[in-house]
């Protein structure tokens, strides 16, 4: 697989692997199946896994740590801290205090069974705390050799500029896909002006862009999409028109809607690394095949024109979740 560079020198595969769903949020999980997906990912050339301490909580890092210990695969690990949850509860608080981040980093290192985290993100920014203080804490962790690169999630362009002035930020991670393009207005141009890479999560619109969901689709127990506004029946019925456009162009191109959505995103710039998540080998293989596709300028223009007439209905998170966006 081709590689891309985040920031000045973090080389990773062009398509990473989001591991969150192997622990929660998308229905039941099966550790043995997840380990098989991780093994297959390595076989396919993926060397960039994305996780967070709050996935599980903690289960996801422990799963990846188990895989790394057993396989010895040379994987670059990105993990995150800043969202605090109690086991068995979704209710959360944001904590970017120096004491918490230091403790969280040490705990992540132990769960992952590694000596240094390749890319350490602030999962959500604590709005009441100066970002300069948070960056000083992360810079200290880097000087101590516990992390190699610093990242921020779902930040505003202003926050990124302030953070980068304290210490270089290697990557910003935010949602980006054919139905979530807010970052194109300010954050992507700011990343490019500063030389910061961009990691795109939910590049398949949490599965909606694949065409697997329609208005009235049912979800397994524990699947948080059932609570998301865009998946609510009335909004999903409107958003199906967008998926139909993707499906039509994919059919003409001889690929799946998921592959078209990923190929389009990969074509938005060599500084962008999508991290689609899956807990099934067949979807992993489908996603990786998208790296061999190219969306031409005319195809991209046609897609942009079609989608510009189809507004997306519904917020991407609940009101509580949206509080952490663009901080």
From TrEMBL:
EC assignment: 1.1.1.65
Entry keywords, A to Z: Oxidoreductase
Lineage: Bacteria, Pseudomonadati, Pseudomonadota, Alphaproteobacteria, Rhodospirillales
Keyword Oxidoreductase: yes
GO molecular function terms attached to this record: pyridoxine 4-dehydrogenase (NADP+) activity
Domain NADP-dependent oxidoreductase: 15-306
Gene3D superfamilies assigned: NADP-dependent oxidoreductase domain
Species annotation: Pararhodospirillum photometricum DSM 122
Protein name: Aldo/keto reductase
CDD domains given in the database record: AKR_AKR13A_13D
Enzyme class: oxidoreductase
